[in-house]
# Entry
Amino acid sequence: MADATDIFLGLGGGERQSLNLSRANRHGLIAGATGTGKTVTLQGLAESFSANGVPVFVADVKGDLSGVSMAGSSQFKHANKLEERARELGMTDYAYSDNPAIFWDLYGKQGHPIRTTITEMGPLLLARLMDLNETQEGVLNIAFRFADEEGLLLLNLEDLQSMLAYTAENAKQLSAKYGNVTKASVGAIQRQLLQLDSQGAGQFFGEPALEIDDFIKCDEQGRGYINILAADQLMRSPKLYATFLLWLLAELFETLPEVGDPAKPKLVFFFDEAHLLFDDAPKALEDKIEQVVRLIRSKGVGVYFVTQNPIDIPQEVAGQLGNRVQHALRAFTPRDKKAIKAAADTFRINPDLDVEQAITELRVGEALVSTLLEDGAPSVVQRTLIKPPRSRLGPVTPKERAIINSISPYDGKYDEAVDRNSAEEILAQKVIDATATAQEVEEKGKEEVGKQPRKSKSIWEKAFSRGAKVAAGSAAGMAATTILGKKSRAKPLQSGVTSAVGSVVTDLAGPVAGRFVRNLIGGLMR
# Structure
């Protein structure tokens, strides 16, 4: 199957319906009412992509997609229906099998934690996450700009809170340089941050930050890893869920090189409950989401939106979704009827099929399928019996999840948070130093105190101080946490020169690299 050029979806119109791997990065839509088979379709697609060496990212909203990591069983209560469907479709090679999977969880409970830093997220997405108005977003931008210029790393919510407190205390000076800063606006942002923290967002911000390449891996058999995000708890904070996925798309776009249309995607991204990305989103943001979706195709990433109602996806975005699987819709309300007509109008006409009527008559496990052909044209829509998955239908047990986590290639890499010296600690130290200096001036006079070395060291002074300590034979723990700012798999001791250079890179990388990434994302988001 590794040499296949397409993915078998099912039989429709007496013909084999499939998804061309070379057109799988042209995105797609899986839609249908609750209970019509969307999850099973998604699961079958995920395991087929994996078998063809394509890594997958999927948000597990209900918890049952975790079963893709385990082989199905003839003892399963619906096994007879799955096996009957396989025979009906002529799947002579049908057999239960598992898939390589990695569990992730923003809260770190059901999988490896996913973190990013405040610096990498940037003010634009944070403003969206906190529902800030234009004035408040401007103040947040000023806080970020000042932090960049001062070399202050904004890693977690505590760093941003400290930066905002500093901004409020120095509002007059900052206003003179950057524009109007009011304490009222700062206070409003701080209150929104507290709400984010109460929703658990604080666990998302920090280090070690996710290395996006870790989503794009294959196992020793050449099968793509299926990255499963536990989203059942995350769905209680829909704004965080949507912003996280938008950030992830932007990170993928920034990180991956241009590849055009590869023989198969580098990564396939399933966005469940897709309507959350667009709920209450201003038109300008919708336009930029459409732009990201359109551009990320050239990076070899396929984005598949999964939603109950196809009209939840704005037309500009829906126009980018070339591969479509439409499960049943019910015509109970005027909005439902509108959705049915809209869905029918998106398909290439089949003269032998009344699409509008068929959408309301589809059984569970049936769908209307139209995918992009090798020449890029959409196939004629066909009423299709969808193939059964080979993996388990239903969630893994806590014990099974624990075992899979323990054998993950990233076991131990992200599990423990690291809190290195950043804006919160530096600003707190500045306050302490300023108080001590003021007291000395009062006691010794300004001229005498001015001859003394500064209390807060510069980046360069800190770097060579750290290097000297390591050269003297400091322990591996101090080298890892002080020099690298995170756990290190390096050798226990390093030279003083290497340590000093590493320290400078560590301290500068945050503000400099973060500013580069935000400029790129900002170009997309504005």
User: Anything to note?
Assistant: The chain has a mean pLDDT of 83. DSSP finds 19 helices and twelve strands in the chain. The longest strand covers residues 6-12.
